[in-house]
Amino acid sequence: MRLMTGTHVNLYGDKTYVMQLRTGYSYLFNETVYDILKIVESSPGISEDELCSRMLEIYGVDDRASFRADILECVADLAGKKIIDSEDPPPAQAQPVPEDLINRICIKNHILQSVTIELTYRCNERCAHCYVADTEKDAGMELTTEEVFGLLDHLRAMDVLNVTFTGGEVALRKDLTDILRYADKSGFAVSIFTNGIGLSDETLDEIALLHPRSVSFSLYSGIPEEHEAITKVPGSFERTLYAMMRLKCAGVMVNVKTPVMRTALEGFEKLHRLCAQLGFSHQVSYLICSTNKGCASPTLLRVGDVETYKRLMKITSDGASAQPSPRDPDEPICGAGCCCLSVDPYGNVFPCNGYAVKLGNIRETDIRTIWNSDRVKRFADFKFSSLNRECRECRYSDDCLYCPGAMLAETGDIRVPIREACLIARAAWEVRGERGNGTGHE
Prior knowledge:
By secondary structure, the protein is α/β, with parallel strands linked by helices. The protein has helices spanning 31-42, 48-59, 64-80, 99-108, 145-157, 176-185, 201-209, 224-231, 236-249, 268-278, 306-316, 367-371, 374-377, 389-392, 404-411, 419-434; strands at 2-3, 7-12, 15-20, 25-29, 84-85, 114-118, 162-166, 189-194, 214-218, 254-259, 281-285, 340-343, 348-350, 360-361.
């Protein structure tokens, strides 16, 4: 027996979290499964008899026959879910767990689950909605390869599972493939954000061989001219699509990230159809935010109209599938600083890359110390009940984005709502009501 390629295992409290990148499913098991998988991981090719003997040594149970039967039943289930490579895996009914359940477990136990690493702020596109100012693009101050490796070592020692590499544009780092190889060898589930236009065929092929969790590409419209009016780079639509197709054909999970802008509405439906036809997942962001420095110029690209948001949501089925779970007043607003962190190209640590509250710098303080600081732990104190009365009592609250970082950048106060977010929440609420799955209209 051995672990199937693409299997990642972590222990969160008393729950074993297993992510299988090849199947796209995640699972929760008890602690015993963690011991089984760690034995198989450390001893590839181990037999069932050897595994049972090792487990009996760990647990020292009296009823050895029943314990062995339980272990073998568990192994059969894991094989059926394509977590363990066994000679004769039986079929298994996949029962994936939602990502937000894992987030809640990590938030409750103050477990750092995910880290975003911005490798550079340099970029080969000039998008109007970019949150990075030209004055921040200092290549000479970026973390060196060795510093990134050191950060990854610290994160692995903390049992961090998910690492996302983003920018700027990651392709402008000459050591990109070295960093990706190191992260893969260290056992992280790696995600990559890119525009794709600077990735060579050789780099794309190497990324495919590393089996990342996903590679996300920025694509703004299904009409090339609309897309390129935003990127300011002629031919960027075709070059991005080429990179996406090359990875997709190599079996990589490809995701399209589309922030909705009023200058690219004509090609939105065409882009969504294109994603469906080519097998890309499509992640739509409806709120265009101010920059982290508080510059409001990107907000000029907002749609600003409930009916238009509703039309777009109906195209993608967003906000219409089911009534969302009611907000728990005692849970944090989001995972920023609660189960995730972000590190910028210069080593500065933030709750997320859209939340401009500096928590420290890894060149001065190691990431574990920063994570365990009282300042970080206080982020869990910002709950739904902490919001102002207008937000707490709003009928659209269960549909609202509530992004503290965006609120801070635009209003200067994490408790003051962004009115565009209110329009988006209302649109989601009304779309669901019109489909008969939600609260409906008054």
